[in-house]
Amino acid sequence: MNTPSPYGTHRVIEPLGVLPQAAWKLDARMVIAPNEILIDVQTLNIDSASFTQINNEVGHDAAAVAAKVLSIVAERGKMHNPVTGSGGMLIGRVAQLGADIADTCGLQVGDRIATLVSLSLTPLHIERIQAVHLERDQIDIEGQAVLFQTGLFAKLPHDIPETTALAILDVAGAPAQTARLVQPGQTVLVIGGGGKSGTLCVYEARKRAGPTGCVIGVSPFAKDCERMRQFGWVDHALQVDATDAVAVMNAVAAVTDGRLADVTINCVNIPHSEMGSILATREGGKIYFFSMATSFTAAALGAEGVGKDVEMLVGNGYARGHAEHALNLLRESPALRSLFEGLYA
Amino acid sequence: MNTPSPYGTHRVIEPLGVLPQAAWKLDARMVIAPNEILIDVQTLNIDSASFTQINNEVGHDAAAVAAKVLSIVAERGKMHNPVTGSGGMLIGRVAQLGADIADTCGLQVGDRIATLVSLSLTPLHIERIQAVHLERDQIDIEGQAVLFQTGLFAKLPHDIPETTALAILDVAGAPAQTARLVQPGQTVLVIGGGGKSGTLCVYEARKRAGPTGCVIGVSPFAKDCERMRQFGWVDHALQVDATDAVAVMNAVAAVTDGRLADVTINCVNIPHSEMGSILATREGGKIYFFSMATSFTAAALGAEGVGKDVEMLVGNGYARGHAEHALNLLRESPALRSLFEGLYA
Ligand SMILES: NC(=O)c1ccc[n+]([C@@H]2O[C@H](COP(=O)([O-])OP(=O)(O)OC[C@H]3O[C@@H](n4cnc5c(N)ncnc54)[C@H](OP(=O)(O)O)[C@@H]3O)[C@@H](O)[C@H]2O)c1
Ligand SMILES: NC(=O)c1ccc[n+]([C@@H]2O[C@H](COP(=O)([O-])OP(=O)(O)OC[C@H]3O[C@@H](n4cnc5c(N)ncnc54)[C@H](OP(=O)(O)O)[C@@H]3O)[C@@H](O)[C@H]2O)c1
């Protein structure tokens, strides 16, 4: 191993010179450098776009998902889906602290933590897969992972079940960015509003847009729309397929007297939803693409193609304080909490 | 052909239901619907990321570039590079106006126009390639194209050579967005500052950041850095490879006392420059990815991976008034004008 870099470039096998996220292959030997943290991993939370792609590819079978995950990790030294480009995150127990950071990183051996950096850049070694939870994109494993010096983490809270915290922390960037983007009185569209990040964004949007605002959720599934309506955070739950761009636009136009959305948050886990987001957003509005299935060129050239002057944001998974912010949503809303605990605990 | 949609969905052959940019294949029969415009094409301006990819793939040979372009257009009905996902734009002469829009579109048969929508969504038929200009990413053809009802265009100006206008209009979104993003006194980094869009952004950034601001250009080539210095719009021209993320960060840190950039504009034509842009931008700063070689996941997960809370914008090629804005830069600066006329006229 070369001199340990705070960004982990010493773990890059190929291509040399890039950072770990951009690398094809990482060195996943579980011997840590003096500025690294070794983690005994308990559960992986696979990014929903990645999990959905793999699950579809292998035909919705837990054993086949496990085999595919093992082969990706064996080949790349990290759980970096080569089709979607995305990762996920993990929870586990601190097994060892590098000498250079032991006193300053704020952790003790034995602490239970969640990594807040993507699995697409986290050196990972899987000994054995114990269980694949198809319904919640999580995989229990025996194995180890390495966190770099600049890698963010959160200590797991004591008041929230660990697998619920894992699910929430995976998408913590989404409600934090929604809080920044939405102003009182605005019309906010959450595409994929029935999902994990979508539900948190709908809740956050309702708080920020306030009683004079309008929150619209989109899902292609009747049961998701029904649930959105029951919780009461949306003004409208529209049952539309996000990949049918013109249908999304028409449905949103119908409930906004043609004014469309001021802010659109895209939280789907499937490709080809860029144009629907663009057409349903008003001229001068903003679109936050949290979905990892977003295509950069489809968004950039799609907006240009219809002459739509909108600000489009790349869904940075990190925002200062995002982990605490997301967990606090569960603490302040019993309804949100019981929903997530029901699904993920 | 189905009922003509203002977005051109009636031209989509596969997959059905998507808009033309997202389509794999368009119907490029040059018989127009009542809401379309037929154009006799003179010159294609291939998007630089696309042209660079094709040119590298075929080994820098004009005839091989021509063959590749012909095969893509024959297969897809549009010049939509399947590797980069990007297009470019074109200039030509209005050949026919659909009956429904003839009176309202502001054009006459015979008008010379540039399309302001991407070639990645423009039905195109090439009769014959007349010349490939390797040095300026342009291809003279005999052929026809179709503009949809919502497709933007600009009449070609009389005071600027047509191929220069074509080059400028291709990247008109970049200086327009720079003008919106940069505030007086800010430190602005233009990565790929020696290129076409890069030069316009450097010029615009200088105007907006003003005398108390700091403009930094990055290019890996000595001659580009030399030229940037000669024009005098940059405070620093740094000779660094944009794909070497840590080198870019260190070089920018060195000339800003470690403060890094407030605003970064990425104008390169090659992949893998996301991390350099992220590391060289200060916490809380903004990054505008104009480059069509940008990977969405590399940007989103890369920023998260290093815990950098930056706002990252997808380079929408369109902004209201962008064509006039870009052409006016040439009108106000004789230095800029003679540079571009030297390269593209
Ligand atoms: N930017 C980041 O840092 C970051 C971090 C984590 C995750 N992500 C991404 O964020 C996205 C959402 O993640 P998540 O965990 O919230 O996923 P999730 O819980 O699976 O939610 C996705 C939602 O989209 C719905 N959906 C599926 N197809 C749809 C369609 N055609 N139209 C409308 N909605 C549709 C899904 O419905 P069903 O479940 O009923 O199919 C689901 O409700 C994913 O793309 C994920 O990769 C990004
Ligand atoms: N968002 C949109 O709507 C839109 C529209 C048009 C174009 N674009 C994209 O914008 C980008 C720039 O377009 P353009 O027409 O300005 O291209 P350009 O004139 O070719 O400029 C690209 C510049 O990047 C430089 N470069 C190449 N490798 C580099 C490296 N490793 N490090 C730093 N700089 C490097 C190039 O140098 P050399 O030329 O000396 O190699 C050139 O100066 C392209 O990716 C293009 O696809 C976007």
From TrEMBL, chains A, B:
Q: Which SUPFAM superfamilies match?
A: NAD(P)-binding Rossmann-fold domains (SSF51735)
Task: List cofactor names only.
Answer: Zn(2+)
UniProt keyword list? Metal-binding, Oxidoreductase, Zinc
Q: Which residues form the L-erythro-3,5-diaminohexanoate dehydrogenase N-terminal domain?
A: 10-157
Protein family membership: Belongs to the zinc-containing alcohol dehydrogenase family.
Q: PANTHER family recorded for this chain?
A: D-GULOSIDE 3-DEHYDROGENASE, NAD-DEPENDENT ALCOHOL DEHYDROGENASE
Protein name as it appears in the record: L-erythro-3,5-diaminohexanoate dehydrogenase
- Organism placement in taxonomy: Bacteria, Pseudomonadati, Pseudomonadota, Betaproteobacteria, Burkholderiales
